[in-house]
Amino acid sequence: MGTITLSKVTKSFGSTEVIPPLDLEINDGEFVVFVGPSGCGKSTLLRLIAGLEDVSSGVIEIDGRDATRIPPARRGLAMVFQSYALYPHMSVAKNIAFPLKMTGVDKKVADEKVAAAAKVLNLTDYLERRPGQLSGGQRQRVAIGRAIVREPEAFLFDEPLSNLDAALRVNMRLEISQLHQDLATTMIYVTHDQVEAMTMADKIVVLHAGHIEQVGSPLELYNNPANMFVAGFIGSPKMNFIGGETASTFGADTIGVRPEHFAIATEPSDGAWEATVDVSEHLGSDTFFHLHSGIGERLTIRSVGELGLKHGDKVYVTPDQSRIHRFDANGKTVASQR
Amino acid sequence: MARAVSTRRQVAVSILAWVVALAIFFPILWTVLTSFKTEAEAIASPPSFLFFDWTLENYGEVQERSDYFRHFMNSVVISLGSTLLGLLIAIPAAWSMAFVPARRTKDVLMWMLSTKMLPPVGVLIPIYLMFRDLGLLDTRTGLVIVLTLINLPIIVWMLYTYFKEIPGEILEAARMDGATLWSEIVHVLTPMAVPGIASTLLLNVILAWNEAFWTLNLTAAKAAPLTAFIASYSSPEGLFYAKLSAASTMAIAPILIIGWFSQKQLVRGLTFGAVK
Amino acid sequence: MATAHSRTAARFMLSPAVVLLLGWMIIPLSMTIYFSFLRYNLLMPGMEEFTGFTNYRFFLTDPAFFEALVNTIVLVVGVLLITVIGGTLLALLLDQPVWGQGVVRILVIAPFFVMPTVSALVWKNMFMNPVNGLFAHMAKAVGLEPFDFLAQAPLFSIIIMVAWQWLPFATLILLTALQSLDREQIEASEIDGAGPFSRFFYIVLPHMARAITVVILIQTIFLLSVFAEILVTTNGGPGYASTNITYLVYVQSLLQYDVGGGSAGGIVAVILANIVAIFLMRMIGKNLEV
């Protein structure tokens, strides 16, 4: 079924190496998210798997079969693009049927499959419309419909939600997750949004400058980031990094504490750091404080519920000792001393 | 614009614009009017503007005396033939430059453009001699070949700028959907590019229809298109105004109509995309 | 951004166009260069011999060449002046709200679609003819002696004909450029207190500078090769008064059958055109994103 294995895959454009040798194993039925900042090579990696780009060296196996030299059309994969890439001159029905037409599926069978996909995606009433007459969310669903009807070994998603507005994005996120539950097909999903990665993935692959920084389940990455990059990338607001003397007392070059792993008080206590409130953001459910601290660093602190502190107030923050991450001079996580 | 345009100003501007426009258009209008006069009325002094005996006899005579229709068909065959042949060569070329750009693509485009800058007299003699030896002088085939080649850079350029506006992701989607290169071009690219291809076709029909260097130099009687046919009116002066006008009206009418439809694309095509 | 497979296909699909144009450019051009060094007259076949730069010396020292060169320059510059200034004014006029704008535009653009031979003959016979032309009628109506345009001012007459054909082109392109001017810029300058004239010179004209340059360069390329208008009106005369380089080469090679001399003239024309072309190509190249 939909297992995908990359061994020693590299990609260079001219003399620039975009992806240094990379190994990755994707199991059947897994929802894998490639996440990283823009330019980290995540989309290139997806396009290599799709076959839209050639690998410079290395082997890609799909379903145990060497697919490195197979053209995209015959890899048995389906892709959903960021711009949806719908065919503007075809109706929704024709768009969804296109891959079936290309593979020579019988017209009657194709019609049935299109109808079934449209039903799943709530597109039945729109089948005769052109893509230009649809909303962003509907276009997205057509693109997904076009992928579903092929019954592919795996689905590839290239930042599919980034053109949608915030509310719609949350809905579509749920719909795609639901789809994965229903189909149980391998899905590879590229995003720069760590929230999407955390909420959807079985397995997250964090990429940075073409390297895989870490592979793991969302909570593994959250709880045990392998290095400062992953620690800073996963979680929102971002993890606080503190260097210098404070870090040395913990036996590290840098320590990291997530905003939610602080206790905040207006009275001094043992081991607390003194700080002053610069800005406080009240979200209702949470309050974010941006502080400058006596230890010479800016800190972001998250506190559950309402907390009525304002600009200039003096506060005392205490990190949760068990959730302090320690990093060495290279940014690698130092094994826990607990 | 939130500017309040006073009616008086608009009246003045409108009148001025109409006067200027009619002045510019007047030679064409005058030609059309003259084509409906008798030869005597055409040279009458003072000339009458609208109040003359309208007649269609010039149109009939032009056809009878000089086989107008044959020259008209030559023009149609030459302009349409060279444009279609050009499109056939240019669509794949523009496809590859727009969607599979290489390091050299820009150089190739600029080089193609540079061939358009070559003055025709620079190659007139060899082409004339080659055509003479190959028996292509005064043939439609010969003109189709030459006009295809001289307009090919414009066709490639226009198509290229239109293709560039089609997102490459859509072609990649087709590839993922199992389309071969052939069905990618036939089922996805071409239908999407139809408006662009159509305006390229129109502009090049216009250019080929009006081309008057090669058509004059490479044809005599047999394959002469309308440009060369009209030129034959240059010698017998005086008594041929009405017939000249009738022939001219028929020669420019189809292109005027096509031209009015494609005026927007004209700018882009003739400036190689430098002005849009 | 593509695979080796699609790159191969691309090269395969690009090659017909490239090969054809390469052939079109290189084969005849090198033949012209070769002929230009030969004594080669079609009336004396089999007498071809290598003569070095003799053809060039004859062509360049021929008084006709100098006259034709001056005529070419006067023709190009004259038409450019009329079309660029007239085109700018027309574009400004047509950019205003005008009743029946669509029709006005169509009327103004029309001359561009008239084939050169038609336009030349219509002007020659129906307007400029000293007996039956409309201008002669008008002169007589106000009691003036009719003016024989083509005999007494042949080059000027040809400039008028050609300018009439190219004015729509300049107008259309300058209007397109004008319409892409950001209205907010105009409004900002109004708030800053600029009057209509300073607005035109400081905002509108700089915005149109690019389009004007493009118009000048493209028209120059075409105007250097004006041919049909001369052929059907004056035949280059009287004398060489309305002969340009293109026409001179035509006369020499196809009327006098002097292939060698004509070829030398052709190469001179190519060199002249290249000087303009280099500037034009830079302009367009700068604008080209691949």
Automatic annotation (TrEMBL), chain A:
InterPro entries: AAA+_ATPase, ABC_transporter-like_ATP-bd, ABC_transporter-like_CS, ABC_transpr_MalK-like, ABC_transpr_MalK/UgpC-like, Mo/tungstate-bd_C_term_dom, NA-bd_OB-fold, P-loop_NTPase. Signal peptide: none annotated. GO terms for molecular function: ABC-type maltose transporter activity; ATP binding; ATP hydrolysis activity. Keywords: ATP-binding, Nucleotide-binding, Transport. Coiled coil: none annotated. The keyword Nucleus does not apply. CDD domains: ABC_MalK_N (cd03301). GO terms for cellular component: ATP-binding cassette (ABC) transporter complex, substrate-binding subunit-containing; maltose transport complex. Belongs to the ABC transporter superfamily. This is ABC transporter ATP-binding protein. It comes from Flavimaribacter sediminis.
Automatic annotation (TrEMBL), chain B:
Residues 72-262 form the ABC transmembrane type-1 domain. Keywords: Cell membrane, Membrane, Transmembrane, Transmembrane helix, Transport. InterPro entries: BP-dep_ABC_trans_perm, MetI-like, MetI-like_sf. One of its GO terms (biological process) is transmembrane transport. Coiled coil: none annotated. GO terms for cellular component: plasma membrane. It is found in: Cell membrane. The chain crosses the membrane at residues 12-33, 76-96, 108-131, 143-163, 184-209, 240-261. It is a multi-pass membrane protein. Pfam families: BPD_transp_1. Belongs to the binding-protein-dependent transport system permease family. This is Carbohydrate ABC transporter permease.
Automatic annotation (TrEMBL), chain C:
It holds the Pfam family BPD_transp_1. It is found in: Cell membrane. Keywords: Cell membrane, Membrane, Transmembrane, Transmembrane helix, Transport. GO terms for biological process: transmembrane transport. It is a multi-pass membrane protein. Residues 69-280 form the ABC transmembrane type-1 domain. The chain crosses the membrane at residues 12-37, 68-94, 106-123, 155-178, 208-228, 264-284. CDD domains: TM_PBP2 (cd06261). One of its GO terms (cellular component) is plasma membrane. SUPFAM superfamilies: MetI-like. Its main location: membrane. InterPro entries: MetI-like, MetI-like_sf. PANTHER family: BLR7065 PROTEIN (PTHR43005), INTEGRAL MEMBRANE SUGAR TRANSPORT PROTEIN (PTHR43005:SF2). Belongs to the binding-protein-dependent transport system permease family. This is Sugar ABC transporter permease. It comes from Flavimaribacter sediminis. The lineage of its organism: Bacteria, Pseudomonadati, Pseudomonadota, Alphaproteobacteria, Hyphomicrobiales.
